[in-house]
Amino acid sequence: MWGLGSGGSRGPRRALSTEQIVDAAVTVAEQGGLVAVSMARVAQELGFTTMSLYRYVDSKDTLIELMQDRVIGLPPELPADANWRTALEIWARAEYRTIQRHPFWLDIPISGPPRGPNNMAWLETGLAALDDSPFPPQMKLLLLLNLSLFVISQARFARDATDSDDFAPVLRRVLDPAQFPALSAVLAEGSLDDDNPPGGTESGWAEGLFEFGLGRLLDGYAALSNTP
Questions:
Q1: DNA-binding: present as a keyword of the record (predicted)?
Q2: Is the Cα dihedral 123, 129, 132, 135 positive or negative?
Q3: H or E stretch at 9
Q4: For residue 24, which of 66, 55, 61 has the smallest C-alpha distance?
Q5: What is the domain extent for residue 36?
Q6: For the chain, which terminus, N or C, has the lower number of CB atoms within 10 Å?
Q7: pTM for the full predicted model
Q8: For 130-170, how does the pLDDT look when each residue is reduced to its tens digit (9 = 90+)?
Q9: Which residue in 207, 198, 196 sits closest to 157, CA to CA?
Q10: How far is it, in rounded angstroms, from Cα 149 to Cα 145?
Q11: What are phi and psi of 102, to 5 degrees?
């Protein structure tokens, strides 16, 4: 992942590279989802035998970890004059858009902290965005990880949420206002209708929910820092 521990120059010239294998695996995942990725399927994509891949990648688990880092790519360049809140907004939206472009990324299990160079670049950029904040170093890390987990959960909701055109109308028919007075009041004023997403945005529920939640999360960070 970091380009360390590569083999020497002796022996037959290698016809593949780790980068080619990872790119092929990403292609397979983009076409058929993460479930379609196997060493055999990736080898087929490349026109090589399955065993030949193991000279470069020791297991499917390692391959998926490499894919996770490759797909997330490099972080955005943040404006030098942006305050910490604005910088975090840009950072969070960039992560959200990147994940949306590669939906299979959300199916990769989170088994521990990311270790790849691209993920470390995102972490470095996010921490640098907090340079002008009053938070101590450890809290900066916790705030950034919390923000990233929020982004991932919102991206998963946006991907997985099914068509909800009949959600509010069905609830209006089946809910007894005497048993569910608070929910019935929300339904009555249209807060759960598809054409009335959170925050008054016009981009639909998933986008509105992300922007509303991002704003409130950063409001909390600002309150914690005692800054406007």
A1: yes
A2: negative
A3: none
A4: 66
A5: 18-72
A6: C
A7: 0.86
A8: 999 999 999 999 999 999 999 999 999 988 875 555 777 88
A9: 207
A10: 6
A11: -135, 75
